[in-house]
Amino acid sequence: MKTRGYLMKFIDKVIIHVKAGNGGDGCISFRREKNVPKGGPDGGDGGDGGNIWLKTSKNVNTLAKYTFKNNFTACNGQDGKNKKCSGKKGNDTFILVPVGTKISDNTNQKLIKDMTNDNQTLLIAKGGWHGIGNYRFKTSTNRTPRKRTLGTIGEIREIKLELILLAEVGTLGLPNSGKSTFIKNISNAKPKIGNYPFTTLFPSLAVVNLNHNNRFVIADIPGIIKGASKGLGLGLQMLKHLERCKILLHIIDISSNDNLNLIRNIQIIINELKQYSKKLYDKPKWLIFNKIDLVDQDKIDSIAKKINEMYENKFQCHFISALQKKGLNTLCYKISQSLKSF
Q1: 220 among annotated binding-site residues
Q2: Would you say 100 is a known binding-site residue?
Q3: Which of 38, 146, 154, 187 has a CA between 20 and 30 Å from the CA of residue 269?
Q4: Into which CATH architecture does domain 10-163 fall?
Q5: What is the architecture, at CATH level 2, of domain 165-339?
């Protein structure tokens, strides 16, 4: 199984302040040329102010730099000049954001755009309109107008950027269930692995390539504890990264000696999803029982029977050893085939 992957450590929510450029003022001017006694008005228009755009890039995977630089301005338009010369338009400003960034107006929390495609652009602050020069006000009855208009002020906004991982498959589970080992052994991602809770502190993405035509993106989030939907542990900011997933893989440590405790642990995760979001709760969930190398076949059969009876075959159950890579190829091919039905 040929795989490749990458780990994402990032800030996933920032507030930025944007100020588009002001429009340039119109000019009042009159021609003064030799042998042209009645030259007339020739004041040019100003230039439009520069706009501010957001643009997605697959080469950007974090919003971290915008925690330090969060004020953006575009250039003002130049004022008009004599000889009917218009002022130059202000240069636009482009802000690069990761693919999967949700854009909201921070003043009213209204969603503006969910940017899910590479090289997608969004105008978030419109530059001011140009002012008009006096040559435009010349009429048959007013040969020497001393009138112009000023450029308008560029748009000022406070924008919230929130990154939600773009993954087709998501993993979740209690701390130390083996999620990071699972991700490591199906891709080239290198998450931190240790025998203590919360070794994963940031969401990670990995690309799983089974062959040329079979690939999918999988997301790993830090372990969930009871009360996560109310903010305990790493809380809500991690559960949101499963919102785009089509399949959720609930990784469970099967090595517990107490089967009742195993069932309680499964229910904790299910309840947290239900309390956090009905949309997340209703997503297809597969129960992935990990660490089968530490138990005998009788226990595996007993757990499979108990789960199917309790949940009336609602969940797909799979049994793997992430550490020894048992069952990983079969599971990944089943995931790939299931994703084709969406």
Answers
A1: yes
A2: no
A3: 187
A4: Distorted Sandwich (2.70)
A5: 3-Layer(aba) Sandwich (3.40)
